[in-house]
Amino acid sequence: MANMRFAVGLRRLIPFLGYHHVLMILIAAGIILLSLLLAGCSSTSPGIPNIFLMSLYYENYPPTFNPAQVDPGVTTALANIVGQAQLEVRVGYFGICINPDGGSFLCSNNASSLASQVSVDQDPLNLIWVASTFKDSIVFPYLIIVAIILAFICFILLATFPGWHEETDERGSERDVKPFPSRPVSQVALALIFVASVFVLVSVLWQHTASVAASTIAQDLGNGSVKSGVGTTTMILGWFG
After folding, report:
1. What is the pTM of this model?
2. How big is the chain by its Cα radius of gyration, in Å?
3. Are 36 and 141 in contact (CB under 8 A)?
4. Residues 55-65: b if buried by 16+ CB within 10 A, e if exposed
5. SS (HEC) of 220-233
6. Where does residue 36 rank: exposed (0-12), middle (13-18), buried (19+ CB within 10 A)?
7. Distance separating alpha carbons of residues 205 and 42, to the nearest angstrom
8. Taking Cα atoms as reference points, which of 79, 39, 30 lies closest to residue 59?
9. Which residues make beta-bridge pairs with 184?
10. In the chain, which ranges are E strands?
11. Which residues of the chain have pLDDT under 70?
């Protein structure tokens, strides 16, 4: 009985949903996804440390040898320096998370405060400093912030679109009428969401390319002792946001 009432109510509601309501739902979903993207590594809240652009961590593995390497034996020196370190560093748009010993993450937007909480043996190659340099010099979140603001303004403009309402015609009968939205408002909303989309596309492409490049270089420099990776969750949130 409850399912039947829900189905009947849904059938009555669907005719009153306009196309702008669907657009508002999509824009709201995009704003939420992009907000989560920016919040990555900003706190130790559940799931937030898993939203990162790039990660660096110590791990002993067979080094890669190549004829272009002038001194292949440097990998042995690196392995001796690293020792038993297992620290992991994750970089987000506004914060850095570290996991010194395989336990819980520590997150902050201040790399110096994080570095003061670990010993030399835990971070012998200064991965926290490397991550901080990446965040401060390469990461650029402001295009996404502007895109979120523009999308929110577009959301408000779509909310002003007229919906279905009842009117009485000349014969006294009631009918459902939906006026056309204002053309200037529609054009402004279209322009805003177009600019926001371009900003998101440029920013995500930029950060994806930068993260992959920095990750590859860092792992090559720490050949045999340091591994790196790009955050899958961040890339999904960015491209689908």
Report:
1. 0.80
2. 26
3. no
4. bbbbebeebee
5. HHCCCCEEEEECHH
6. middle
7. 22
8. 79
9. none
10. 54-58, 88-91, 96-99, 106-108, 165-168, 174-177, 226-230
11. 1-18, 162-181, 241
